[in-house]
Design goal:
Blueprint (H helix, E strand, L loop, with lengths): L4 H13 L3 E3 L2 E7 L5 E11 L3 E3 L2 H8 L6 E4 L3 E5 L6 E5 L20 E5 L1 H14 L3 E8 L2 E7 L9 E9 L4 E6 L10 E6 L3 E6 L4 E6 L5 E2 L2
């Protein structure tokens, strides 16, 4: 089988979430951070013939780059990676699945108390502001009916510099301040439909690629009176 560029991009993104991965049989890829606070799942065009464990995903992707148009043949204990001519080959051994961190179950959003669209431009501005200001927290608040403000803040310092940008959105309760750690927003570029629950979980669904993320909120988040 050959891996498409879109699948390779997803795997590269997953390597930033967790250095290892269990690739399950079929066309769904999943990963989760060691801290269990970020879960990602994607549907790809390829169908993997068996469930395998890869201890160092970045290394595996590097192996694929050693040959042009890599073709994968899955064996019991290893993958044989060959180039288009079949003359160059790499034998890459799988890892024991029991040693790796993999999602044990899917997440169902308990409620959707806040919803908005986060476009690629806004996401880029938030990341740049975080880097410039040195703050890692993203505050999500309602400022008026149908308007939500996303701010880069230091929640421990009320006089710290902040960056804010407003987006259209919906919410069930106007009095909330949801806090996300931007370091947990390890999401690929693109536009997202975002839902946030008062149960301290958020869901980012990419509008152009079949990939979504569940990201835990910080415990400093507040909802309601």
């Amino acid at each position: 089988m050959e891996l498409k560029e879109s699948t390779l991009s997803i795997l590269k993104n997953f390597a930033t979430i967790n250095p290892n991965i269990v690739i399950a049989e079929g066309n769904t890829l999943k990963t989760i951070t060691e801290a269990k606070n970020v879960l990602a799942t994607a549907t790809v065009e390829e169908s993997f013939p068996k469930t395998v464990g890869i201890y160092d995903l970045s290394e595996f992707l590097g192996v694929l780059s050693l040959v042009d148009t890599p073709k994968l043949e899955f064996n019991d204990d290893f993958a044989l990676v060959s180039d288009s001519s079949g003359r160059s080959k790499v034998k890459y051994f799988f890892s024991d699945i029991e040693m790796l961190t993999a999602p044990s179950k899917d997440i169902t959003m308990p409620s959707e108390d806040v919803k908005f669209t986060l476009d690629a431009g806004t996401l880029s501005k938030l990341k740049r502001a975080s880097s410039t200001l040195g703050h890692s927290e993203v505050s999500v608040k309602a400022v008026s009916e149908g308007i939500i403000e996303l701010s880069i803040i230091d929640n421990q310092n009320a006089t710290s510099n902040t960056f804010s940008i407003q987006v259209d959105g919906e919410y069930t309760e106007a009095n909330f301040n949801f806090i996300l750690n931007i370091n947990n927003m390890k999401i690929i570029d693109g536009d997202y439909d975002v839902a946030i629950s008062s149960k301290l979980i958020s869901n980012f669904v990419n509008k152009g690629v079949s990939i979504q993320y569940w990201i835990a909120l910080e415990k400093s988040s507040t909802f309601g009176a």
